[in-house]
Design brief:
63% of the residues lie in helices and 13% in strands. The chain is α+β, with helices and mostly antiparallel strands and 196 residues long. It has a 4-stranded antiparallel sheet, with helices on one face. Helix 2 crosses helix 3, helix 2 runs parallel beside helix 4 and helix 3 packs antiparallel against helix 4.
C-alpha cells in the first residue's frame, strides 16, 4: 500500500506541470501579445491578458484531454491525468511559440501601419495649421485620430464648445496624402458609434 502511494506521488510530481505552466505562460503570452502584436492596431495589455487567458484555458480544458488520449496510445503506462498534463503543458508551450512567431511574421504589417499613422498625423497637422481657425490651431496637442479603413483616417481637434470638434479626413493611400475638412463637428468618440 505504501509503495503504491509513493508510485502515485511520483507520477503526480512528474505530471504536475500543466497548471503552473498555464499561470506563467498566460502572463508571458499577454506580454508577447502586447509587445509583439499580431494585429496592426496593437493590443492593449488588459485585452492581451484576456485573450491569452482564454486561449490557454481552451487548450487546458478542451485540447489537452483529447491530446492526452493520443499520448496514452503511445505510452499506455502513463496514468490518464499525467498524460493529459504532459499534453497540456506541451500545447501551452506551443501556443507561446506560435504567438512569438505570429508576432514576428506580422511585424512588417505593424510597422507599415505605424508609418501610415505618422504620415497621416503629419498631413493632418499641416492642413490644420493652414486651414483651421486660430482657436483650433491652439489646441492641436489635443488632437485624436481614428482609423476608419485601411489608409483612411479621421483626425479631430476639440473646440472650446463641449462635444464639438474641427475634424479632417486623411487618405494616406495616395501620394501625397489627401486631406479634406469634415463638415460634421462631432468628436471622434461620438462619430465612432455612428460609423458601422
Amino acid at each position: 500500500m505504501e509503495r503504491a502511494s509513493l508510485t502515485r506521488l511520483r507520477w503526480r510530481l512528474r505530471g504536475a506541470w500543466m497548471w503552473p505552466a498555464f499561470v506563467v505562460l498566460t502572463v508571458v503570452d499577454a506580454g508577447i501579445l502586447h509587445a509583439v502584436p499580431i494585429a496592426a492596431d496593437g493590443i492593449g495589455l488588459v485585452p492581451a491578458a484576456l485573450l491569452s487567458g482564454f486561449a490557454n484555458l481552451l487548450v487546458v480544458a478542451v485540447v489537452a484531454p483529447l491530446s492526452g488520449r493520443l499520448v496514452r496510445r503511445r505510452r499506455p503506462d502513463l496514468p490518464k491525468a499525467v498524460a493529459t498534463d504532459y499534453a497540456g503543458a506541451t500545447l501551452l508551450a506551443a501556443v507561446t511559440i506560435g504567438l512569438v512567431l505570429g508576432g514576428l511574421l506580422h511585424r512588417p504589417a505593424v510597422e507599415r501601419a505605424q508609418r501610415d499613422l505618422r504620415v497621416q498625423a503629419a498631413a493632418a497637422r499641416a492642413f490644420l495649421l493652414t486651414e483651421a481657425p486660430p482657436a483650433v490651431r491652439a489646441r492641436l496637442g489635443a488632437a485624436n485620430t481614428i482609423r476608419l479603413a485601411g489608409g483612411f483616417y479621421r483626425t479631430c481637434v476639440p473646440e472650446a464648445r463641449p462635444r464639438r470638434a474641427f475634424c479632417v479626413f486623411v487618405r494616406t493611400n495616395q501620394n501625397p496624402p489627401v486631406v479634406r475638412a469634415d463638415p460634421d463637428r462631432s468628436p471622434n468618440a461620438e462619430y465612432r458609434t455612428a460609423v458601422p
